[in-house]
Amino acid sequence: MVKRLPHEEAVLASLRPTCKEREHVRDLAQQLLAAIERSGKAKGMVVGSVARDTWVRGDRDLDVFLLFDPGLSREQLETEGLTLARSIAASFTDRFHEKYAEHPYISASIDNEDVDLVPCYAVDSATKIQSAVDRTPFHTRYITEKINGLIDDVLLLKQFTKAGGIYGSDQMTEGFSGYLCELLVLQYGGFTQLLEAAAEWRPHMIIDLEKHGAKEFGEPLVVIDPVDPRRNVAAAVSLDRMVEFVELARGYLESPSDLFFTIPDEQMISAGELEALLEQRGTHLYAITFETPPYIEEVVVPQLKRSMVTIHEHLERNGFCVHHAHFAMQQEKCMLLFELMVSQLPLIRAHIGPPVWNRINAEKFRSKHITSALPGPYIVQGRYETEIPREYTKAKDLLVSPSLLQLSLGRHVRQSLENNWEVSEGRNCWSPEFTSFIAGFFSRCSPLVRIQQKK
Fold first, then answer.
1. Residue of 161, 153, 205 lying closest to 183 (CA atoms)
2. pLDDT tens column, 49-97
3. Cβ 287 vs Cβ 335: under 8 Å
4. pLDDT tens per residue across span 221-234
5. Staple partner for 106: which of 79, 117, 327, 454, CB 3.0–4.6 Å?
6. Of 421, 414, 405, 258, which is closest to residue 333 (Cα–Cα)?
7. Which contacts of 269-278 are long-range, i.e. CB under 8 A and separated by 24 or more positions?
8. Given CA atoms 277, 279, 281, 285 in this order, what sign does their dihedral have?
9. Among residues 129, 138, 130, which one has the least CA distance to residue 73?
């Protein structure tokens, strides 16, 4: 019997699914599997946390895979798989639609449950997968076979990472997936044992439950997939999310509290509060907003990140020092947010040329700038230097200029910007859609610091 702290028992009592939930989900799953079996076209299998009994109360997404003959071509799998998934969904509800990952699947709402019907190949080994989702049934079998006695530890870990803001392997979070949480608990034999080990983690930590890793990985955290020796389950985990987990582990071991399992309230800020905050900080805020490209988050988010970095560099090259930048993707709009140390610059700037001993280039530089009305060229530290007019003296003028479209932006972000973009300044950056994002932008702190501030 695992000895739990009193607050851990209370947390678990709120995390374990109720008997009514279990029965409802189990009954619906059996109905869906029976419908797939009756079709005679594929075998059905429930996968994910519901199948492994590691789901948290209220978070009961039901993933049902339709396993087809591996002899089908990819085109046949997509066509026949989508047709069957659509027909199964239609027999239960009219609330369903197609979604796209590596290939299309059906997402439905049935009896108030979110259900995904996903076609895949029924391969006999995870090393023979023909699409990424083919690996998932093997994950389910592996965890189901080994997780007995550790389910509560998985629930605690999931809630611990959710409360810390590091749960989710999506592009925006770059954190811990549910499967990764399960494997970490298996590796260390429990929640507390995992935290004790993680408190000493360093970048490039390698965990290999089956001792069968078949390649090297460069990510900060490497957890070799037990069913596929060439895959890192923790590939999505960024260095910051890994280190935040280390920090949280240390903090919890030093001072255990139910605050480590409490989801923080959504942060809010009004336009007036934003204006007062900027006045207090003495900085300058600019927001670029545009229509969200019509693609899934996994496609858009990396492009938003790339675009933010590129515009950040563009601002810096033109003399506008960026203190902080971030991005957000909402259903209708995206926002790139930049906090600058200055908003306006002098009319002139120094332009550094080649060393004088680089004779050909030095003479070209001198000849080009000798007729300028501004001082120069002159020599500083052996190089020619001169003063030239600054192209943009105001940050907003730079951000609204067509030069933005000449930058190395994400392709779909560029397409949205070509349609239109808006640049807002100061309190005008505020909008109801992005109030939580903007509030978080100005209240940065590590997960442990946030918890300690509440104590």
1. 153
2. 999 999 999 988 899 999 999 999 999 999 999 999 999 999 999 999 9
3. yes
4. 999 999 999 999 99
5. 117
6. 421
7. 269/430, 269/435, 269/438, 269/439, 269/442, 270/430, 270/435, 271/427, 271/428, 271/430, 272/427, 274/426, 274/427, 274/429, 274/430, 274/438, 275/426, 275/427, 277/442, 278/426, 278/427
8. positive
9. 130
